[in-house]
């Protein structure tokens, strides 16, 4: 675990040469991949979402594919097709962009619901079905989807609840600080930092980390804290639809991955508390009255204040 922790720190620092001031976001991407989850990046245009995904793929030395979603993109453009080759008189597979380690689903909310749903099987099962035949997706695999805020766009198709629930995290990139933006302008003045990135991890490293992460211990007191947060989300007056069991399992896996990346063999209450906003906010559906006055961020803050944080560290005794 010590060796992998060193590699992870190098990987995060390397991406930091391209994406300034977003160390937490980079860590969330690594947590997502190690937890076998997917990440939805949301922010205004030009905030570095696409460049972050490309940098991530390069640093883990993984294969990379990109889909630029538009309303005319078809499901077969995502998954691939089998076509008849007249020269060989046989059907051949033309692999879709999902056959990769890192899939950038750019502006996913511009795709039609039918095309969006073509990602469901890939994200949940890590496999795709083409003309009735199932093909596995290589490991490790992560979908990094981007979308611009719906209120700033026309011609978008908001992701349905079933699709949103497949994303482990939803992360708002936000604007850089003034100092960070100044550093960005200096760095890009003479070169493209993305071109100079070096890999710090390998796909094999990440597959090993996915297995080792499962050994991270979750004490009963920490698991109970996590569960109370999930269950109170289903009872809160401002929430029409709370966190599903899939969401609870997603939070559990994410806390294990966070603890692992930080070199611990156990999940702490802080792991849970720090990840709840990223796991919960896109899964909650607020009541009509609450949605007028509050945002999911406000409601998640209320949930965290309602449930007492355990004083125990969560370490094995």
TrEMBL record:
The keyword Nucleotide-binding applies. Signal peptide: none annotated. Keywords: ATP-binding, Nucleotide-binding. It comes from the Bacteria. The keyword Ribonucleoprotein does not apply. GO terms for molecular function: ATP binding; ATP hydrolysis activity. SUPFAM superfamilies: P-loop containing nucleoside triphosphate hydrolases (SSF52540). This is Magnesium chelatase.
């Amino acid at each position: 675990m010590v060796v992998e922790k060193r590699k992870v720190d190098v990987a995060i620092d390397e991406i930091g040469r391209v994406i300034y001031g977003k160390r937490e976001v980079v860590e969330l991407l690594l947590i997502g991949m190690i937890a076998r989850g997917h990440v939805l990046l949301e922010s205004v245009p030009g905030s570095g979402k696409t460049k972050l995904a490309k940098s991530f793929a390069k640093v883990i030395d993984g294969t990379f594919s990109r889909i630029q979603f538009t309303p005319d993109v078809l499901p077969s453009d995502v998954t691939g097709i089998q076509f008849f080759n007249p020269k060989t008189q046989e059907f051949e597979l033309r692999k879709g962009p999902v056959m990769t380690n890192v899939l950038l689903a750019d502006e996913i909310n511009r795709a039609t619901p039918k095309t969006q749903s073509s990602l469901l099987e890939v994200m949940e099962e890590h496999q795709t079905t083409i003309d009735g035949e199932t093909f596995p997706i290589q490991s490790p695999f992560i979908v990094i989807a981007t979308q611009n805020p719906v209120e700033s766009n026309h011609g978008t198709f908001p992701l349905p609840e079933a699709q949103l629930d497949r994303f482990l995290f939803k992360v708002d990139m936000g604007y850089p600080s003034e100092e960070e933006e100044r550093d960005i302008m200096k760095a890009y003045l003479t070169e493209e930092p993305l071109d100079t990135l070096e890999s710090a991890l390998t796909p094999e490293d990440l597959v090993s980390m996915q297995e080792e992460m499962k050994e991270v211990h979750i004490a009963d007191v920490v698991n109970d804290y996590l569960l109370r947060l999930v269950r109170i989300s289903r009872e809160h007056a401002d929430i029409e639809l709370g966190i599903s069991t899939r969401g609870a399992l997603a939070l559990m896996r994410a806390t294990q991955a966070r603890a692992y990346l930080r070199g611990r063999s156990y999940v702490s209450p802080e792991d849970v508390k720090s990840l709840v906003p990223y796991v919960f906010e896109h899964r909650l559906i607020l009541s009509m009255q609450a949605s007028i006055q509050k945002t999911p961020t406000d409601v998640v803050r209320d949930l965290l204040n309602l449930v007492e944080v355990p004083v125990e560290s969560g370490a094995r005794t």
